[in-house]
Amino acid sequence: MMLIYYRFCVIGIATSKASVAIFLLRITIIEWHQWVLYTTMLCVSVTCFLCALFDFIRCDPIEHVWNPTIPAHCWVSTEGFTALSITVGGK
């Protein structure tokens, strides 16, 4: 249950930050401000969606994510996924 909640939380972070950026886009008049907002919105959204996706596809078999006693081949280590999650939380 917690794994499902985590994905909605991460995607909620991306959409809430994108909505604030869209609001700011409506009131900016300087072009480089708009480019900064577009770039920030893209970077945050991509990072959040990758974090939500990697939890599904980083290990084979997927059961290793919620039961670490199962042997698995992971192409993103737990430490790497933790670093990505901290990055998402820090944005």
Structure description:
With 91 residues, the protein is mainly α. Helix content is 73%, strand content 4%. It has 3 helices and 2 strands. The protein has a two-stranded antiparallel ribbon with strand order 1-2. The chain is elongated, with a radius of gyration of 16 Å.
User: How does the major sheet shape up?
Assistant: 2 strands, antiparallel
Mean pLDDT: 84
- Low-confidence stretches at least 5 residues in length (pLDDT < 50)? none
Indicate the proportion of strand residues.
under 5%
What is the helix/strand order? Answer: HHEEH
Summarize the structure.
The protein is built from three helices and two strands, in the order ααββα. The protein is mostly helical and 91 residues long. The radius of gyration is 16 Å and the shape is elongated.
List keywords for this structure.
91 residues, 2 strands, mainly alpha, two-stranded antiparallel sheet
